[in-house]
Amino acid sequence: MKRVTVLCFVFISGSIMMLGACTALKHKEVKSTTATVSKTEHKINKMPDKSKVWVFLLAGQSNMAGRGVVEPQDTITTSHVLTINKKNEIILAKNPLHFYSPEIDGTGCGLTFGKELIKHIPKNVYVLLLPTAVGGSSIKQWVNDSVFRKVKLLTNFKAKVDLGKKYGVVKGILWHQGESDANPEGILHRKEYMSRLFTEFRNAVGNNELPILMGELGSYSKDKDLWNQMNEQIRQYAASDKYSSVFSTADLVQKGDYLHFDSASQREMGKRFAEDFIKKFKNAAVAPTKHR
Question: Which of 50, 210, 235, 279 is deepest in the core (most CB within 10 A)?
């Protein structure tokens, strides 16, 4: 393995600030389920002040983890959007962000969310994206802290919250999940489980007003009626929780498996997550935090 050191600079108000040295680790290119992507990582050796790092957790199942084709634009990094690798080291964010199913993880919505968000927040603020989504997981498994695909779901989420607090301030959660629960029983208990899980999320962060942003399931399923019913439950929950939001995905398209959004739709979802946060929660996020 070849190690290369790259100096990373941030341009702010006409001046140059060095964000430490980024250590680039050269690995062999590996195959995802969709494309051949470089596994080069640019590690951040010196983090900004915690008050300047906004942390967002990405949670749910495969459409949050991302199953889109990783295209060149999905691997372009920016100095102000960060994530972690499987060793919990801070790196410049690029797709795929998730690493729990490396053979199938692909382009998701998180990177575009971060890139869109930094256009609308103070220039000296960084966005740190923490991946916790596990493909195929049900909301009941999250509530029960079950082990799925070798990940103890809620325990892992809480560990990432603690990691986020080490480096910054947790500002929100991006949640996309429901395909695994699109059945009569799952629909019946949907709002109950969402309430229980989101309470756990907010308790872990220590903020009862923490924004939780959601996207609907796609409109392309072969079980459209069940997915529509699930979306209605999600919308009803969002209407009852003023610190949550949900956006429509009715115009977005699938990658050919009638289950997962394609890459372009994932990028659009990222923009919609950012738009919802900016519209509904940005002012509160900019204000000094009063939570632990």
Answer: 210
Confidence of residue 288 (pLDDT cuts 50, 70, 90): low
pLDDT digits (tens, 9 = 90+) for 202-229: 999 999 999 999 999 999 999 999 999 9
d(CA 173, CA 244): 9
φ, ψ dihedrals at 51, nearest 5°: -65, -15
pLDDT tier for residue 289 given thresholds of 50, 70 and 90: low
Report d(CA 97, CA 266) in Å as an integer: 13
pLDDT at 9: 40
What is the rounded CA–CA span in Å between residue 247 and residue 277?
11
**At how many degrees (to 10) do helices 110-117 and 263-286 cross?**
40
Work out the average pLDDT over 121-125: 96
Contacts with 49 (C-beta within 8 Å, 6 or more apart), sequence order: none
**CA–CA distance, 91 with 84 (Å, rounded to integer):** 5
On whether the pTM is more than 0.85, the answer is: yes
Read off the tokens for 6: 């790259």
Task: Give which of 13, 10, 16, 98 is closest to 57, Cα–Cα.
Answer: 98
Which residues fall within 8 angstroms of residue 233, CB to CB, at 6 or more apart? 187, 190, 191, 194
Three state DSSP letters for 190-209? HHHHHHHHHHHHHHHHCCCC
